[in-house]
Design a protein that fits this description.
With about 375 residues, the chain is of the alpha/beta class. It is about 20% helix and about 35% strand. The strands form three sheets. Strands 10, 11, 12, 13, 14, 15, 16, 17, 18, 19 and 20 form an eleven-stranded mixed β-sheet that branches. Strands 1, 2, 3, 4, 6, 8 and 9 form a seven-stranded mixed β-sheet that branches. It is globular, with a radius of gyration of 21 Å. It starts with a strand and ends with a helix.
Length: about 375
Amino acid sequence: MTTSTRGTGKVPAVLVLEDGRIFRGRAYGAVGETFGEAVFSTGMTGYQETLTDPSYHRQVVVMTAPHVGNTGVNDEDAESARIWVSGYVVRDPARVPSSWRSRRTLDEELAAQGVVGISGVDTRALTRHLRERGAMRVGIFSGNALPDEGTMLAEVRQAPEMTGADLSAEVATTETYVVPAQGEKKFTVAAVDLGIKGMTPYRMAERGIEVHVLPATASVEEVYAVNPDGVFFSNGPGDPATADHPVALMRAVLERGTPLFGICFGNQILGRALGFGTYKLKYGHRGINQPVQDRTTGKVEVTAHNHGFAVDAPLDTVADTPFGRAEVSHVCLNDDVVEGLQLLDKPAFSVQYHPEAAAGPHDAAYLFDRFVSLMEGQRA
């Protein structure tokens, strides 16, 4: 990625997909060029949480909502210390943010962090193209001296693909840190950071859990050095087929029978640990309006998602695994994608979506209570 000054709204910009489709618009955020995987997010709000979610590392996010930036950027809602998206695509950026919490415009924040974006794009047409053709590599180019179309397309096709990408260590913490319990401490959890969002340990802390957030490279000895009552595996970017170390670590936790909870990438890790495969979705699930059924209760939840890979597990049968019986606990009602797994003979479960979603919806927050119940049962 190369960047220069902030876009003025008049600087020309071009978006080039790897299949040769081109969209023209205006620079938004930093001016320069950037590459990544083109994906679309269907959320109408929560763009600040989206931008700072480490799971979006090396992805260019297309916002399907036409108006973006309406509430500006504040200093409280970020899910991490920086913006992780590789690029940002919007149709009609807000001219003036209208929120008492706003400290600066979204355009200013993107520019300050060197994130190349484009505005004035027909994002509805772009989203339909990605739905029909699938997520693919993309480049955004802006400035007064743009390369010719052939050169831009060649550069896009030279960019790395998401399949086979091992990215969790690039976004995870390098040092262990502790998020203290709110009120009385009831449990200690070792959270393996594969790209964790700030709201995740907060959701546990408000339930009386002291959370020790460990690097993605943590060993089993380092995990158990904190004397955990439970172990958590977070969300994160990249292809789960490359995550051999987290899979081996999770198997060690399962062997010990410690209560285990995984979210998103953590769900894919559990799938692999149990012996299931993973695969890349055509265009993934990203947004805050995905319907998921909890098969253990029959309840349908509106949920927040951000994943391009899924677990290949049988939907309607209980499977035998090296750690006992396992079943699919949650399923997406749009396309029958596996959205959760649970072991029937050990205290372990996971979900593919984001029950900690700060911007909402909060239908699935009960899953943190389910994790607490597992730890209570183990202690008893």
